[in-house]
Amino acid sequence: FANVGNETKGRIMAMLNIQEGSLPVRYLGLPLLESKPSHMDCKILVDKLMRRTTSWLSNSLSFGGRLQLLKSVLFSIQVFWCTTFILPAAVLKKCDSILRSFLWHGLGNSKRAGKVAWRKVCRPESVGGLGIKESRTNFWTAPITGNCSWGWRNILASRKFMHRRILYEVNDGSSFSLWFDPWYQGETIAGLYGQRVILDSGLPRTVKVCSVISEDRWDWPLNSADLMEISNVTSLIPLSTGCDAIQLLKKGSKFTIQEAWKSITPQCQDVPWCKVVWFPQRIPKHSFCVWLSFMQGHRTLDKLSRIGVVSSSACVFGCGQDESLDHLFFACPYTATV
User: Fold this and answer.
1) What does pTM read for this prediction?
2) Where is the Reverse transcriptase zinc-binding domain (predicted)?
3) Considering the chain, what is the average pLDDT of its residues?
């Protein structure tokens, strides 16, 4: 009930035979909230991820099996929440911890370290990762101070990312603000040249781009050096009688979450062994083992001796050499016969 007196509220409840509830309540698997979700509001998500990982504990899953479940089930649960809410940073950190722990140890709450750094695991397969998306990599992390709402602060923080990925395609110029939309080389004219250029032009602040277009040609007032420069730059922008359009990522492309993710993911060089590991007919657990080898992730005795876990790094097959990754797979006489 919103702004309803107790007497009116009582009559409505008696007539409809209903009871008064309180938020949060569950709807379509998500909580209905009055404000941004808190850490406690998202406990449902964390508990659900933990229950799933616990239910698979007795299945003795291989690394390949865990990776498949992580991508298809655990991450999908998290994405369902993220499409509705901007989750708190602490919740995203906890979700990543559960996914990381499940991948390496089959548990959702293990404190042991993984074999490969999580930031490397979250890279695309083509550059040496496993193609997992890290939850805390998103548009909404840069803080904005002030008295604006939590949602608006996050939207403002995303602008520096979006300006580099949105292309304003000017045709008839009737849709875009002349001064305040980033149609001019990905920037706003007011942002690049300041308020003075608006005064020099003699045009109102509210005009559209079409105000400087005449007979399908640019027609700028040339009252200052800045306006002359703008005129020279815009003369290279072709015009047409069609409608203005906003393209995401690049001209003519269709927006997808996958393409957006690629655009904000740090670019790394492709690894030459990607197709050797992740070919279509692969056996998942074998591919995972080979991937660990390329990433130097196996806990061989030479590694364990360096950190003081074992006292000797001698090969356990008695060949008289130190156990290392290269030795086990390529130089050990015993493994060569297996």
Assistant:
1) 0.51
2) 255-337
3) 81
